Amino acid sequence: MTPDNALSLQIEKYRKLTGEERLAIALDLHEFACSVAREGIRAQHPNATPTEVEQLLRKRLELARAS
């Protein structure tokens, strides 16, 4: 299977999902992305408290929205 065929198949499967199923996937992906970002923040700021990590994450999200 080529990458283009795989992408077409994936899109076809997504189109068959209900709105609720698609929303659940989007929310899961968002939470996964936030978890990855938190780990990156912890690596950059090893002494940061959990509250500071969340504040830095919020700043990153705000910057992403602004661009």
Tell me about this structure.
This protein has 67 residues and is mainly alpha-helical. It is 85% helix and 0% strand. It has three helices and no strands. Helix 2 crosses helix 3. It is elongated. The termini are far apart.
Labels describing this entry:
single chain, 67 residues, mainly alpha
Question: What layout of secondary structure does this protein have?
Answer:
Layout: H1 3-16, H2 19-44, H3 50-66
Task: Round the mean pLDDT to the nearest integer and report it.
Answer: 96
Give helix % range: over 70%
| Poorly predicted spans | none
Specify the structural class: mainly alpha
Order of helices and strands: HHH
Total number of helices: 3
Biggest beta sheet summary: none
Rg from C-alpha positions? 17 Å
Strand content: under 5%
Indicate the overall shape. elongated
Head-to-tail CA distance between termini:
36 Å
Tell me briefly what this model is:
With 67 residues, the protein is an all-alpha fold.
